[in-house]
Amino acid sequence: QVQLVESGGGLVQPGGSLRLSCAASALTLDYYAIGWFRQAPGKEREGVSCIRSSDGTTYYADSVKGRFTISRDNAKNTVYLQMNSLKPEDTAVYYCATDGPGVCEETQLAPEADFGSWGQGTQVTVSS
C-alpha cells in the first residue's frame, strides 16, 4: 500500500522560508509523479506544484512561480518543496499526492481527483 508522509511545516514570518518533504513508501518514484496541493481555511484545495520523477518535468501555479521550487531525491524516494519569500496567503495545510506520470505536465497539474494516494498534510502558517 502506497504511503506518503509530509513533514517540514511550521510557523514562519512573512518573507521567510520552509522546506516541505514528502517521503514515499511502497512505490518507486521513478515511475510516478508527485503533486503538492494546499488548502486554506474556508477555501477549496488547490494545486501548487508537481514533478514527474522520470524526466524531471515540473509545474508551478502562477501564485508560487519564482518563489517555490520542487525537487526530488529518487534514492531517498522523497520529494521536496522549497518555499521562499513566504506570504500570509501561503498559509494552508499542504498535501502531497501521487499517481502515474501523466498527472504532471509542464503546463498543468491534473485535478486532485486524478491522484490516487495522499499524505496526511502538514500545516504551514505565515504570520508575524
Keywords:
4-stranded antiparallel β-sheet, mainly beta, 0% helix, 128 residues
Describe this structure in words.
The mean pLDDT is 94. The strands form 3 sheets. Strands 2, 4, 5, 6, 9, 12 and 13 form a 7-stranded mixed beta sheet that branches. The termini are far apart. This protein is an all-beta fold and 128 residues long. 0% of the residues lie in helices and 51% in strands. The protein contains no helices and 13 strands. The protein is globular, with a radius of gyration of 13 Å.
What's the count of strands? Answer: 13
Characterize the biggest β-sheet.
7 strands, mixed
Instruction: Note the gap between the termini.
Output: 40 Å
| Strand percent estimate | over 45%
Q: Please state the average pLDDT score.
A: 94
Topology pattern, helix = H, strand = E: EEEEEEEEEEEEE
Query: Can you tell me the overall shape?
Result: globular
Radius of gyration equals: 13 Å
Helix content: under 10%
Q: Number of DSSP helices?
A: 0
Query: Which secondary-structure class do the elements indicate?
Result: mainly beta
Poorly predicted ranges: none
